Amino acid sequence: MCLFCKIVNKEIPSNIILENDEFLAFHDINPKAPIHILVIPKVHVNSFNEADSELMAKMSNFIQKVASEVNIAKSGYRVITNIGVNGGQEVGHLHFHVLGGAKLHWGHFSDADPKGHF
Ligand code: 5GP
Ligand code: ZN
Asked: How far does the centroid of ligand 1 lie from the alpha carbon of residue 112, in Å?
């Protein structure tokens, strides 16, 4: 069973913000912003690349509720999902990072020449 499935099953403790039958939101153990929440489906899905549109529709709604719950809906926030090796995904269970609580930086994502592809 994967790490986040164990968190869903409460075999590994987490600091839960919001939960319903299908989704769980909890604080990231290694926050990269004043607010850094992970939102996951309770069912195991490897990544966004395997997520179906019905799941994503409900996930969007749940993420919006999480943002309201921690009072960042108005001030703004960022939603990120890393996919696979190049995406930097470390945990192979679909998760969305919800980052906020301060003005976030926007910078270079790789050392490769960003204009080198097209
Ligand atoms: P990824 O790199 O896969 O997009 O993100 C995985 C995230 O999971 C990282 O931000 C990491 O800090 C977080 N993480 C890893 N293990 C745990 C854990 O046991 N508990 C919690 N709450 N977060 C974790
Ligand atoms: Zn899992």
From this structure: 26
